[in-house]
Write a structure and sequence with these properties.
The chain has 183 residues and is an alpha+beta fold. It is built from six helices and four strands; from the N terminus they run βαββααβααα. The chain starts with 5 loop residues before the first strand and ends with a helix.
Length: 183
Amino acid sequence: MEKEGASIVITHQIIDGKQSEYENWLDEIGPLCRNATGHLDWQIIRPIPTLTSTYTIIIRFDSIEHLKGWINSNERHRLIEKVGPLLDQGDNYFIRSGLDFLFTPLETNTKVPARWKQYLTTWSAIFPLSAFIPLIILPILRKLGIPSYHLIDSLFISGTIVLLMVYFVMPYYTKLIKKWLYK
């Protein structure tokens, strides 16, 4: 079984006045989900009172297989039927595995690019960073008096590269090459 991790983002728009019933439903489904095989994390983003009525639930599993096992389980199907009358727009969700979140387009009807395109895009973004970031980070570490130790150097270099990739490089780079990437 391939273990690359997977996340599901669920949005539920609640019918006005049904929030407390929905909260009770969350108390019922939450423990079942957290006890499912491969469950890692469960987060709820609640609506802003008087402004929104959408709950967003983010659930992480250790593999896509375990996540799909939970999504397709009899317990979840039973509880989704139970909550149905409280939902304004049904049970909406999307699943992402591995590093697919780096390639998630803003338009939800657009598919994730082919793996080979993800590979080439990621590699072409990481290569220049891995070549030049050490030239910047290592002198800073030495100036701060941090001794030259491979693991410490690698920790700072890789942390900087990942930070740049996730927050700066990939959002703009994928927009720049989106015609090729999503073709």
